[in-house]
Amino acid sequence: MADEQKQLQALSDEYQKLQTDLQTNIDARQKLESQQQENKGVQQEFAQLAEDANIYKLIGPVLLKQDRAEAVLAVDGRLEFIEKEIQRVEKQIADIQSESEKTRMAVYQLQTKMQQQQGEPVA
Hints:
The protein has helices at residues 2-48, 68-119, and strands at 55-59, 62-66. It is mainly alpha-helical. It is rod-shaped, with a radius of gyration of 26 Å.
């Protein structure tokens, strides 16, 4: 019975860790999605600009003039990177959810087994 109690505690601790990891990954995905929306907004602004419009980039406290092609390329590159990161994080979330469900079922089965053993008369 003591071994089962230790095993139950270990499974419960693992489940809690998985839930924490899951929340961390969900937060990361939300941050990436926010960055993605921001960069899509910049991309739309670039599309509306005249070809000869000046584009400036804020570097520290200074605004520096930037070539249009270079700026568009940088934003497109960031969007591509962010999309790949979102896919990577979503895969991690799916993996953690799967592992979490397995651990939850193991906890449930062990609890059920322990309850059944408590209900049996001791010989």
